[in-house]
Amino acid sequence: MSHLEMEFTEIPLADIETRAQKLIEDYEDHVGKRVRTPVPVESIAEHYLGYTIDITDEGLFEDPKYLGGIVFDEAVIRVNAAVESHEGRYNFTIAHEIGHHVLHREQFVAARNDQTPNIMCREVSAKPIEERQADQFASALLMPADEVAKAMRQIPSASGDISVRALRALAGKVCKIGGFTNVSNTAMCNRLITLGYARGLDYQTGTGLDLMRSADARGFSGIDTWLYKRLKKLMRIFR
Amino acid sequence: MNGVTTLAERLSDLRAIKKMGIRELGRAVGVTGMHISNLEKGKSAPSAELVLKLAEALDADADELLSLADQVSPEVAAVIQKNHQTIPNFLRSAKDLTPEQWAKLQKQVEKMNKDNQ
After folding, report:
1. Which residues of chain B have pLDDT under 70?
2. Domain A13-139, CATH among 2.60.40, 3.90.70, 3.40.462, 1.10.10
3. In 3-state terms, what secondary structure has residue A162?
């Protein structure tokens, strides 16, 4: 849960990347073959780390803002049934919970007391440090830097200053060329920003706010652009 | 079966052996991953038809899964319905037979089937 009375320490991004890569290599040793994209995070969680995946809409997960959670004591990763049919969100949620296993389990288990909830949860909006770290881990696990680089090499002059629209198109191409079929366009956009392939943009949220921020940054009125987009969509519907 | 006694545990065990994802199994038998989760938690009881699909997807013994699910195969249910007086009477009179006698009976039935062909 995000309201843990526990302070997690900073972990450099490079360490998070290394630990995600190490997990992939350990899994490769376990299955005796090289892992290619899409990275099988479900299998890593269940058949390598020994977690049970529980897709549920009960209890905490009646609320769609809770996307997933990990219960270390029971070796269970819970995923909100609301994301089951969203390939990207489903896999990112599992990868995020694996991130908690790799980065936070030891500290969580050692520092727990009777008042601590037994579950660490992924919420839509709340981003304390441990949640951001688990997100970074999930990105690195699902979209290994070398695999992204390989795909980017096949798209000439793709990186640099870029608009949101161009970033989304680029992310779509990278997903297709690189075989990242289990990540969302938004997740790939953010990965491209993290890896330095796209500059001058904030991290994407997958909402219209991104477009507004981008338009603002380019001297257009964000709200005008937003309204124009909505109007265009409506015209398409009524045509 | 390594001491596994419930359908929930057996399904989870079989899925682990097959290294199948929870949604992958759901898709194979035409239900959601959440439905499979509920079955593996023992929170819902599957129909006989679903048990047969699960057995096929998991390369498992359908009769074993049907028995764990307290279900009768639709094929067996049809035989009982067709012989709704004979079979209950037969089963009542055979209830004290030993496993060896059941095996003998099975062989006898197989022989009769062969003779019929």
Report:
1. 1-4
2. 1.10.10
3. coil
- pLDDT, tens only, A149-195: 999 999 987 666 788 888 999 999 999 999 999 999 999 999 999 99
Domain ranges in chain A are 13-139, 145-238
A81 and B32 within 8 Å at the Cβ level: the answer is yes
> A interface mutation test: which of B12, B14, B22 has the most A CBs within 10 A?
B22
Beta-carbon separation of A84 and B32 below 8 A: yes
The answer to whether residues B94 and B67 belong to one domain is no
**Position B1 in a domain:** no
Please indicate, yes or no, if residue B56 is contained in any of the structural domains: yes
Token look-up 């899964």 returns: B65
Say if residues B53 and B30 touch (Cβ distance below 8 Å).
yes
Backbone φ and ψ for A2, nearest 5 degrees, come out as: -75, -20
- 3-state class (DSSP) for residue A46: helix
Query: Can you tell me the ipTM of this complex?
Result: 0.77
Query: Measured in Å, how far apart are chain A's first and last C-alpha atoms?
Result: 46
Is the alpha carbon torsion for A121, A208, A206, B37 positive or negative? positive
Residue B100: inside a domain? yes
Where chain A has pLDDT below 70, the residues are 1-5, 123-126, 158-160, 206-239
Backbone angles phi, psi at A189, to 5 degrees: -55, -50
Residue B2: how many CB atoms within 10 A of its CB?
Answer: 6
- Cα A231 to the center of its chain, rounded Å: 30
CA distance B74 to A127: 52
Domain of residue B90 covers 85-116
How many whole angstroms separate alpha carbon B67 and alpha carbon B104? 22
B70 with B17, same domain: the answer is yes
Instruction: Kindly report the nearest CA distance between residue B20 and chain A, in angstroms.
Output: 8
Q: Can you read off the two tokens belonging to residue A205?
A: 């949220």
Q: Is residue B80 part of a domain?
A: no
